[in-house]
Amino acid sequence: RLNRNETDSVDRHIAFNLHLADSIGALSGGRYDVTVKPLVEAWGFAGRQAERHPDVDSILAFVGREKVRVEEGRLVKADPRVQLDFNSIAKGYTVDLLARLVESFGARNYIVDIGGEVRCKGVNRQGGPWRIGIETPFDGNMSDGEYVQKRIRLTDGGLATSGNYRRFYLDADGNKVAHTIDPRTGRSAVSRLLSVTVAAPTCAEADALGTMFLAMGADDALEAVRTMPDVKVYFILADGADGYEEYISPAMEAMIMQ
């Protein structure tokens, strides 16, 4: 309704997601921006048919976080065509809400998983850490855990994985068009960075950070994480042949199962 300009009322959930998205966006150099929705639609990833030749320059005129603000619970747009897309954060936020719900009923050992966005606490039935598999990111991998690259131990907090190996298509020239869009260029953020897994205190944070690093591309993402000593990330990158390279941040190393 906000995107269709049928209301300007912002509830607490939208306000929270917008605030968190701003904090992640401030780290991204413009690569993470929730006003990206018109671009996502133009490229065919929001329930719309892809445009054969999207007019990216025209769309960029109403993309940009500075073009929307919240005033006294109301969303104010600089242009009515501005639209918000919380796909990169809201699923993680929903996982956090469910985790809060099960804790309110007294659960102390649990795992909540919605399509790979995870929040857990305590231990599994065997009394050990929860074990979460990270898929091998080859194009078209739609299996349910059949191909696992690594397993991660988790006892408290959120975990999310972002990748461009499921939601993509090839254009008329055979170029890969993936669902992660760089809001600075308006085009698909495709690089040799194939999969990003982030552990964070909440799943919403992990979800947003995963998208941010994927949108940065391999070189910028690797440079960024090396300036963030506390960040817990696991990257899977193409090695230029048929295999993969891996990067595990120092803060994540203890969580990786050997």
Q: Could you tell me the strand content as a percent range?
A: 25-35%
Number of H- or I-type helical stretches: 6
Question: Could you describe the largest sheet, including whether it forms a barrel?
Answer: 6 strands, antiparallel
Strand arrangement across the biggest beta sheet: 3-4-7-12-13-14
**Alpha-carbon Rg, integer:** 19 Å
Can you lay out the helices and strands and say which pair or pack?
Blueprint: H1 12-25, H2 37-42, H3 56-60, E1 68-71, E2 74-77, H4 90-104, E3 110-114, E4 117-121, E5 130-135, E6 148-154, E7 156-163, E8 168-170, E9 176-178, E10 181-182, E11 187-188, E12 193-200, H5 203-216, H6 218-225, E13 232-238, E14 244-248, E15 256-257
Antiparallel strand pairs: 1-2, 3-4, 4-7, 5-6, 6-15, 7-12, 8-9, 10-11, 12-13, 13-14
Helix pairs in contact: 1-5, 4-5, 5-6
Description:
- This protein is of the alpha+beta class.
- Helix content is 24%, strand content 28%.
- The chain has 6 helices and 15 strands.
- Strand 8 (168-170) and strand 9 form a beta hairpin.
- The mean pLDDT is 90.
